[in-house]
Amino acid sequence: MDEERTARFEAVYTATFAHLLGYALRRCDCQEDAADVVAETFAIAWRRLDSVPPGDQTRLWLYGVARNVLANQRRGAARRADLSAALAAEVTGFYEQPSEDDAVRRAFRTLPADDRELLSLVAWEGLDHGEIAVLLRCSRNAVRIRLHRARKRLNRALASTGAGEPVLIRRIQ
Amino acid sequence: MTTPEDPVARLARVDDTDLAGAGSTAAARSLLTAIVAEPVVPRRSRTLRLVAAAGLTVALAAGAVLLGGPGGATSYASSAIEVRLEGGYFVARIKDPLAESAEFAKAFRAVGLDADITLVPVSPRLVGVMIEGWGGGRGTVRSSSDVEAPPGVDCAVRPADCTLVLRISEDSTGAVRYKIGRVAEPGEPLQDPDTSSTEPTSTGNASSGGTG
Prior knowledge:
The structure holds 2 protein chains of 2 kinds.
Chain A: H1 2-27, H2 31-47, H3 57-73, H4 81-90, H5 102-109, H6 113-123, H7 129-136, H8 140-160
Helix pairs in contact in A: 1-2, 1-3, 2-3, 2-4, 3-7, 5-8, 6-8, 7-8
Chain B: H1 6-9, H2 26-36, E1 75-77, E2 81-86, E3 89-94, H3 101-110, E4 114-122, E5 130-136, E6 143-148, E7 163-169, E8 175-183
Parallel strand pairs in B: 4-8
Antiparallel strand pairs in B: 1-2, 2-3, 3-7, 5-8, 6-7
């Protein structure tokens, strides 16, 4: 029983590790935080393994947990330093990026956190409306509406920072 | 097709494809080994949820409560807490986790229980978990803590939307003191137990109180 459980978790871990690490790296300001999000999210998955859905839904479930872990981390959660220090050391390189797209970054950061996450799930994780609806536990229609509004606000922000020409939103609905 | 978030995509410092194989590195395998070594505590256990999952053992217990106060009340409700007798247990649902401990003690006193609970801010995984417990006197206290989810809510994902629940058996006798994890407020320092030791804490010695 224990071996079965461990084997299933290992399969989940191996299949989703890169996705979850990517999710965390793209959102955290330093590698230590990203590694902590990965460690804490997988620790929760281990304890809640019976709740982890199979197939494509696994990744979405983990994103949902990671999102919550991130929110709590931003409120000052303690780090799982013992588990994640080595992992953090491995991903240092991703934080040495050039500072191009600063105007876009500034514009993006002016958006409400919910808008940023919604746009990130599309732009970074490549999720569609249905997948985001599963992750956020809301209807596809709610996702469509919220995304439409987020895109409008992003367009305005990009225009105001001179980061780009507004894009016609209607075309992409 | 151009979309408004195309510039946002360029902000991503890493693509998942850049991380292919990251789950097989030594650090990732060490993390996996450490995680599966952690004991698993059933989420919906009706027995005591110990903090064993965090590597900390707390022996709760044995205390001794005399039930059935003079008034014989079996329920109590305020803006902070609601206590009801359900299936042999006094079930306390915390309506305001930030209320003063005195508010909770008052509720338990009203139904004849000498219970003192303190809610402390913790990491999401410890919300609803008894972090410390103490029981005094003779007899046995059967108790548990948990979180109750509204329909469609996963407490692991949205703990703030769930209700903290404490159950104390109707036939318990004695006094108990519990420290239970609650959702932290923004910026609030966490009071997670020190998980560096697997030794029981000194507060956990109440099990010697007997089983009455």
